[in-house]
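Suppose a colleague, Dr. K., hands you the sequence of a protein chain of 187 amino acids and asks what its three-dimensional shape might be. Before reaching for any lab equipment, you can write down a predicted structure in token form. Begin with the sequence itself:
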Amino acid sequence: MRSLFLFIAFLIVAGAALTIYYVNSPYFKGTKRTMFGQAEDMTLASPAFNNNGNIPAKYTCDAENQSPPLTFNGVPYGSKSLVLIVEDRDSNPSGFTHWVMFNINPYTNEIPENFISDNVAMGVNDFGQDGYGGPCPQSGTHRYVFKLYAINTILLLQRGATKAQVLSDIGGHVIEEAELTGLYKRQ
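The predicted structure, expressed as tokens, is then:
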């Protein structure tokens, strides 16, 4: 009888341990967990403008051309790095790239205004420069899509990589994505 009791206790403990492993595993598809254990969707926002709101001129070619501040939450468990790509979806069929950043620390939850860092790899934008190039539409109101990718790897690309190179290398590694859209029309 005692051995039956020990066997049942063993099964209960083993089952609990297996459940904990699968729930906390980044490979378990049924549960989404963030770096800090809570379950939520990844979000991308800016204190400078609302989603589908107007981007202040300060962050464009018409003024200081500084990168806007960004915040993100809910980075999923298993993320090794983050990638940020900003493009004008209304400039041409393939879009115009304004900012490419990769190998962002997944424990980071913000990118400050006018961000410059040697700790984050900057890709080349369609202005031909590393770093941020603000909205500068020729006519009409354009949509600027800020897209954040949580990926399960660190990219081995060099600083100055193109958007196409970054998107090619994150293929198969994206855990989750978040978007923020800002609008801008020159006065």
